[in-house]
Write the structure tokens for this entry.
Amino acid sequence: MTRTVLSVGLLLTLAGGFAAEAAAAKAKAKPAARAKRSSTSDEGAPSAAGEAIEKLKGDFKWGMSPDEVVAKVQDRTRASFDERIKKTAQDPSRQDRVRKDMMTQVEHVKDKYIKFDGQKTGYDVSIIDQEFLHGFGESMLVAKEDSATRYFFFSNERLYKMFIAFDKEMLQGKSFREFGQLMQAQYGKAKEVNVEERTKAGVRILLDHFVWSSKSGDMLRLVDRSEFYDVYCLVIYDGAIARKQDEARQARKVAPRGDSLVEAVTTAPANNRDANDNIVDQITGKAIKKPGEQHGADIVVPSVTPASVKAPTPAEINRKEPSSEPESEAPSKPTKRAKPEKGAKPKSDVDGLAL
């Protein structure tokens, strides 16, 4: 079986180019919010040389179901253990451990399939957070490869995009523009797409990605994700499906989403309180407001009489109601006590009680 992770020629070219001296790490500026990229900004891109995009897609074809992609990824996982299994051929116990490790990884492939149906995921603030939106029939599968991590995106259960994040070691300190120039030497001239970044000083224009097209309608995009993740990424996608996704978002009037991690850092809270200082209240559902937060209209003076009890009116109090109890007979005249004898001690009410 042909096992193509990335084009062999591409890997050799990148490895050779990155062997040069590493550039000094650039100081990271204070994060700022960027506008979300759209597939419409990639229109008019020049065609990539030869069958470059097809080689990057490898065994995967647009329209595959999640189960078909899972099966392909599982085949690749098994193939990645071939060398280790051969090396342990003379040691059955070690080979058995290798095979068990392989089977565990093969089984875990299907666990990495995620649907973006509104429930929060670990990818809402991540390296791929600009590549999907919830509620548009999108889903994803993650697979680790030899020198990269590949994310498979589905629209209505059909594969239409692959996002490849290079391992950091492949970059060797190259700037994004230098990396883009190396890619253009491999694939031909690309279109440069800029984005606006909002800062305190105003708005500045930055290079966001390089993009190529193909005769088949597929698109290839090289994306800069080094500000927080120190990696550059290749995105291969079906241009027609991506445009439909954009149209659906516009129809739903979804506001353009910026970089989630940037916005989480730069968005100022409504006040100067710590966002997590009431975490116990959030868990228990009982909100206890701090001094100065509760308005006068919210203060309720407690009443001695419960709200459910209606107080009687003065007329009700003064009105003499007939007694419902039967009248008792008139009490008999009390018996006159005999006077105690002179010198005798008077009896108490408690005299005669047993102690």
